[in-house]
Amino acid sequence: MVDYFRDIWRCRFFWMSLVRMDLRTRYRRSVLGMGWSLLQPIAMTVILCTVFHQVFDIQRVDYAPYVLAGLVCWNYILGVTVQGCGSIFQGESYIRQYPAPLAIYPLRTVLGAAIHFLIALSVVVVLSWYIHGFGNLAALPSLIPTLILLLILGWSLAVLASLTTVYFQDTQHLAEVGFQLLFYATPIIYVEDMLTERRMAWLVRFNPLVTLLRLIREPILNARVPDITTFASAVAIVCIAATAAIFMLYRLQRQIIFYL
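Request: output the structure for the sequence above.
Response:
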């Protein structure tokens, strides 16, 4: 495994150039450029704040950074999984010509999504400063291990999705449907207490995305460092996903070329 990651590092100029090429292709001749990646979560936040303020009498000032943080994290998880489904097919021409580690092609997708995620997350932080002041500065360094965990998790999900898609090409369609259902079972656009009050706390207890959302929201919105239990749960989730990805790579990497 150490040799495998060493090979990935040796190819760093290759996969970094692929990420740059993807970003340039996506935003070529675009007026806003990467600003388009912020438009969807910001527009969704404005709409939800307007509707929920009228229907549920929720304060817009407190709700806006809450829902924006949730949408930013959700879009990252959704993006690395759904876009990761086609990452190996996207790199098919390179795979046939050069025996680089297969994991660099899902990594290409994850790094592109991570750049958009960091830009959107910075908007959440600035919005929280504008509304609540700079009281969360002491808790913000806790985001560093959170970002590392999210990067590893995203890479693992992209690897799993890409390998599965090679053998079962309906994976992306199933993932889109599954994530649509999961979206409404996750406290992204509503607070966790709404589920607890309606005797649906099990959706929070057994939903792994809730832990990841807490790691993002606690330091930014509540100016608190997440407790050790939350971090331990997140590490366990990431380790399970990473172990599954490593196992699938070990078993399937040499056979993939025959299915492309």
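The first helix runs from residue 2 to 10.
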